[in-house]
Amino acid sequence: MQARYALVLIGQLSSFLTLVLLAVAPRPGYAQPAAPLAQARCAAGQAQSVVGQLYSLELADKARQAAEAREVRKIEPGGAYTMELSPDRLNIEVDRAGIVTSLRCG
After folding, report:
1. Distance from C-alpha of 80 to C-alpha of 64, rounded to nearest angstrom
2. Which terminus of the chain has a lower count of CB atoms within 10 Å, N or C?
3. Close Cβ partners of 48 (under 8 Å, ≥ 6 residues apart)
4. pTM here?
5. Domains and CATH numbers, the chain
6. What gap in Å lies between CA 65 and CA 24, rounded to an integer?
7. Is residue 100 within 8 Å of residue 53, measured between CB atoms?
8. Whether 66 contacts 105, CB under 8 Å
9. Which of 62, 75, 67 is nearest to 101 (CA)?
10. For 31-60, what is each residue's pLDDT tens digit?
11. Separation in Å, CA 61 to CA 25, 40, 70, 91, 93
C-alpha cells in the first residue's frame, strides 16, 4: 500500500514540475531580436560640448541626442556599475561636484 501511494505521489509531483517548467520556459516569438551592431551607434565626440558643465537631466539628454546614442548613463566617483558594454549607450562621467569630466560610449 505504501509503495503504491509513493508511486502515485511521485507521478503527481512529476506532472506538477512539468507544468511549472512549461509555465516559465521561454516561448518562441516573444523575444525581441537584438539590434545588429551596425545599427548601434554612439559618437561621444559629437557631444564634447557638455564637458565642464554641471550635470542635469536636460544636459544628459542634449548629450545623448548629440552623440546619437539610444541611452545615457551617469558615472559618479565611487559608484558601482555593470561591466556590460552597450555600444549605443553614452556614459557621462562626473566629478564629486557634478561637473561633467568626460564622455565615452559603451
Report:
1. 21
2. N
3. 103
4. 0.62
5. 44-105 (3.30.10.10)
6. 38
7. yes
8. no
9. 75
10. 444 445 445 689 999 999 999 999 999 999
11. 37, 18, 10, 12, 14
